[in-house]
Amino acid sequence: MNSEQMQHIVELIAARLLARVNNAVTLSQEELRHGSAMAHFLTHDTLYVQQTEMGFLHQLAEGDQDNTAVAHLFEAFSLGMRVTVTLNSRLLRCLPLRALAKLPLSLCDEQRNGVHLCSGNLVSYRDVVGLNGGWLVTSRKTIITALARETLTARHIRLLKQE
After folding, report:
1. Euclidean distance between CA atoms 159 and 157, whole angstroms
2. Which residues contact 129 (CB under 8 A, 6 or more apart)?
3. What phi and psi, each to the nearest 5 degrees, are found at residue 144?
4. Which of 39, 45, 41, 42 is nearest to 13 (CA)?
5. Is the dihedral of CA 145, 150, 151, 153 positive or negative?
6. Measured on CA atoms in the order 130, 141, 101, 60, is the torsion positive or negative?
7. pTM attached to this predicted model
8. What is the pLDDT of residues 67-119, one digit of tens each?
9. At what angle do helices 68-78 and 54-62 cross, to 10 degrees?
10. Comparing C-alpha atoms, which of 39, 35, 18, 91 is closest to residue 61?
């Protein structure tokens, strides 16, 4: 392969990446299972996954790629897509907190309020200063500093400590 061919390939890749900027696609958990979902990954840079169930969230946390939808999400991660998963706020108490917190995804509830996961043992002001609205989900044993609690209240962030 000569330098002109290489330059042409690089230009094609750059053009495709630029074409997908600021394009979002919304898929249900069921739609994500279909092979056709992968075609969206080439033309969009943001993926919203709706109608998720607890079983799917546990499989996602475990990285269970035997589940086609989970395998497709990991493919989206590898392509640099921003992924937001929508879930019912009733599921927040049961989320696999530590495993999901490690994944490069965002969570929101059915009202589009952000869900922020904190898997550490301590939440300080520094951890919450950039948050606005939504939820902060922590483990039952997590210590919240006084200033962090004040900030959560001032920014209308609901604190949920898992059992």
Report:
1. 6
2. 151
3. -110, 125
4. 42
5. positive
6. negative
7. 0.84
8. 999 999 999 999 889 999 999 999 999 999 999 999 999 999 999 999 999 99
9. 50
10. 91
